[in-house]
Amino acid sequence: MNDTATMTIRQTAEEFARARERHDWREIAGEWFEAPVRRWIGTLDADGESEDDMGDAVILAVGMREFLSLRDVMLVAAICGERADFTADRAIDFLKRPMMRNNVRWMEDMLAETFHGSQAPDRQRCMKAVELLLALIGRLDGGDEGWQTQPYATVAYILW
Questions:
Q1: Which one, of 99, 159, 95, 94, lies nearest residue 133 by Cα?
Q2: 100-116, pLDDT tens digit by residue?
Q3: Given CA atoms 150, 152, 155, 157 in this order, what sign does their dihedral have?
Q4: What's the distance, Cα to Cα, between the start and end of the chain in Å?
């Protein structure tokens, strides 16, 4: 990672930490991550190439390290996103309120039905997510302070 990218991710992480001190984490999840998550889901849904967005890469890397629910939403969008019961709105609700009983049940049901039900993960969608995550990791390369850990974990989960 070059010095400009390093500063960007560090500055973003510091700004995020300040925001967490002042606001409820659900508010933060919506303000910081809703738009990048919607773009992530939209990119997985769309045909063709995605836009190269360094801003989203930085925000998602910071967020995945701070909110495992963000990592989980990105993972489920990749492996379960073809399901009729997967919507961006529902994913955002999970992101903001991951411990709510109905959200926990939704996540459990999505994963159980995908792996044990009749609708297996879409291989092309999963590989697109892997490519996007590896590109995100590539933008964060070098001088890593843990920013790559959750994107790599998400790749591993998808490939599993």
A1: 159
A2: 999 999 999 988 888 88
A3: negative
A4: 28
